[in-house]
Amino acid sequence: MVKITGPRVAATAAAAWSPLLVIAAMSLYVGLPPEWRPRPPATPDTGAGLMFPVVGAFLVYQRPRLSMAWLMCAGGLAAGISQFCGMLMFRMAADGHLVAAGHLRYVNLVGWAVSGVSLAMLLPLLSPDGRLPSRRWWPVAALGVLSISVELVRQIVRPAPHPNPRPALIPNPLAIEALRPYGDVISAVAWVGIIAAVALAMLSLVARFHRSGPEGRRQIAWPLLAFAVYVLFLLFGPGMWPMAAVWAAVVPVAIAFSVMRYRLYGIDTIVSRAFVAAGILAVVSAVYFGIGALAGLVVSEQHQIGGLVAALFTGAFFQPLRRWLQRLVDRMLYGSVGDPRLLAERLTQEVRRADPSRALSSVVRVLRDGLAVEGAAVEVVDGKPGYVENGEVGDSPRQIPLEWHGETVGRLLLGRPGARRFPAAHDERVLATLVPYAADVAHAVRMAADLQRSRERILAAREEERRRLRRDLHDGLGQTLSSMAMTINMARSSLKKSPDSADTLLRDLRTGMDAVSGDIRQLVYGLRPPALDDLGLGGAVRALAGEGPPATTVRVTGELDGLPAAVEVAAYRIVQEALTNVRRHAHAEKAAITIERGEDALRVRVEDDGAGLPGRPRAGVGLASMRERAAELGGTCVATPAPGGGTMVEAVLPL
Fold first, then answer.
1. Of 3, 67, 406, 443, which one has the greatest count of Cβ atoms within 10 A?
2. Is 584 found in the same domain as 449?
C-alpha cells in the first residue's frame, strides 16, 4: 500500500488543480467576445498545465526524491495558473473591470516565468536522472533564470501599448514610462538569453547522449527527441503554438518513459514507425489530391475519383512502399548495416565464396555487424566446427534456436548491444532475415561434419569388414575346410582296411559340411539380409513388423521391384533400427511403417504414439547410423515429433 505523505498530497493537489485551471481557462476563452480573444487560443502553457503536473505526481509517488518530478509539478501548476489568470484577465476586462484585470496580468506573467524556467530550461538540464551533467552547466541555469527574470520585469513595468489592440486599455499601475524607448532592446536581449539557455539545455542532453553507453542512450533518447520537436515548433513562431501545445503534453510522457526506464518500445522503433506511417500517408494524400485536381479539369465528382484511385494505389503499392520507407529509415538510423536486405545480400555473397566451416564465420560476423552487438556466436549440434564466435557474447547471451525444416541444428548467441546510436529496435527484422541463412549454414556445417564422419566410418567399417571376413574365412571356414580335407584323406586310407572307421569319418565330414554351410550363411547375411532376396523389401519389412510389440502396420505405395540393392539394404536397416528404438525406448502402443516409391526417391517413414523425443534430443548411435546410411546414398534421415504425438523417423533415399 502506498503511504500518503505531505509531499504526495501536494503533488496530487497540483495534478488535480492544474488541469482544472486549464479547462476553466478554455471555458473562459469560449465565452469571450471575439475582440477580446487572444491569438492563438492555445499556447505551450496549455499542454504543460494539462499533463506535466499529472505525470510529475506519478513520478513523485514512484520516486519521491526525484527533483525532476517536483519541477514538473511546480512548472505545470504555474502554467495552469498562468493560463487561467490570463483568460480571467480578458474576461474581467471585457466586463469592464480593467483595474482588476491589470492585477491579474502580474499573476499571469509570474506563472509564465516560473513555468518557462522550470520546464524549458531546468528540466532538460536535469533529465533523465535529476542531476546536472556536471558543475559546468550551472551557468546555463543561471543564464536562463536571469534572462527570463529580465523579461518578466520588463513585462511588469511595461508602459501601455500604443496603439492599443484591444477595445479598452488594461492599466498597468507599475508602468515606467521612461523605459518605453528601451523596451524593444531589453526584450531582444532577454529573448536572446532565453533562447540561448533553452538551446544549451538541449545541448546538455546531446552531451549526455554522446557520453552514455547503449543503455543510457536509449534512456536519454526519449527526452532528447521530445524536447527537440517541442523547440522546433517554438522556432516557427506563434503560428505553430497550437502544435507546440499538443507536443508539450507529449514531453512529460517521454520523460516518464525515460525516468522509469520502460522497455515497452524503443525510441528508434517509434521514430521508424512514425516515419513509415507519415511517408505512406503523404504519398497516398499526394495521389488523392493530385488525381482529384486532374479529374476536376476533366470531369465532375473529382473527390470520388481521387479517392478511388488513391485506394487502388494504396492496395497495389502499400507493401512495396512500406518496405522501401522501412529500408530508408533503417539506413538513416543505423547506417548501411541496418538494412536487412543489404545484409542478406552481403551474407549470400560471402557464403558462396567459402566452404561451410568458413561460411559459418561469415554468418557470425555479418550478424554481429548488423545487430551491432559486442559479440555473436553460433553453436552447431554435432557439427565441426561446433562453435564459432566473433567478439565476446558474455556470460548470459541471448539465445535463438536455429531450426532447419523443423529440426534444431544449433543456436545463435548474441552478446550485449554495442556502442551505437541506439540498441537496434530493428533487430527482430534483421534476425528474421538472417537467422534462416544461419540455420542453412549450420545445417550445411552439420551435414559436412556428418559426411566426414560417415566417410571415416565407412572406411573404418570397410576395413573392419575386410578384417572380419579374413578372420572368419581364415580362422573359421579355412580351418574347417582343412580339417575336412584331412578327414577325407583318412577316410580314403581306411576305406579298404576298416570300412566302419571310414563310415564314421564320412559322417563327421558330413557334420563339418553342415557347419561350413552355416558359416557361409552367416557371412552372406552380414553382407545382405536374405529376407530381401526371399521376400522383397515389402515382405522383409512386414517380417520385421511382425517380430514383436507394439502392433505395427505396414503400408507400401508404388512398385518396389527393381530397386537398387543399396537402397533396399539402407531402407531395411533404417526400418530395423527405428523399430528397435521404438521397442526399447518409446513405450508405444502402436506403430506404423510407410514406404512410398516416387519417381526419383524412396520415402521411408516410421511413426509411433509413444513418449516422443526428449526435451533436448541428442543424436544417439542408432539415429547416427540411420543418418549415415541415408547420407551414403545422398539422402536424408531426420527424427521429429509425430503429428499426433510420439516420434516420426523419415528417410528420403534418392533412386
1. 443
2. no
| Alpha carbon distance 336, 332 (integer Å) | 8
SS3 category, 335 = coil
pTM confidence score:
0.49
Q: Are residues 343 and 415 in the same domain?
A: yes
The answer to whether position 205 is within a domain reads: yes
The span from the CA of 454 to the CA of 635, in Å, is 13
Q: Which is nearest to 364 in space by CA: 411, 426, 421?
A: 411
Helix (H, G, I), strand (E, B) or coil at 633: coil
Domain hosting residue 508, numbered range: 462-527
Q: Which of 433, 455, 477 is the last residue of a domain?
A: 455
Q: Coil, helix or strand for 555?
A: strand
Give one DSSP letter per residue of 59-109, joined into a string.
HHHH-TT-HHHHHHHHHHHHHHHHHHHHHHHHHHHHTT-HHHHHHHHHHHH
C-alpha cell at 534: 526371399
The identity of residue 64, as a single letter, is: P
Residues in a beta bridge with 404:
407
pLDDT, one tens digit per residue, over 265-303 is 444 554 455 555 555 555 555 555 555 555 554 444 444
> Residue 558 forms beta bridges with which residues?
none
The average pLDDT across 123-137 equals 85
535/448 Cα distance (integer angstroms): 36
Cβ-contact 384, 402 below 8 angstroms: no
Per-residue pLDDT averaged across 470-474, rounded? Answer: 67
Computed over its alpha carbons, how large is the radius of gyration of the chain? 43
479 found inside a domain: yes
Based on the structure, what is the number of domains in the chain?
5
Q: Are residues 158 and 222 in the same domain?
A: yes
Residues 80 and 173 in one domain: yes
> Strand, helix or coil at 138?
helix
Residue that has been written with the C-alpha cell 512398385 in this structure: 559
Answer whether 334's CB lies under 8 Å from 372's CB.
yes
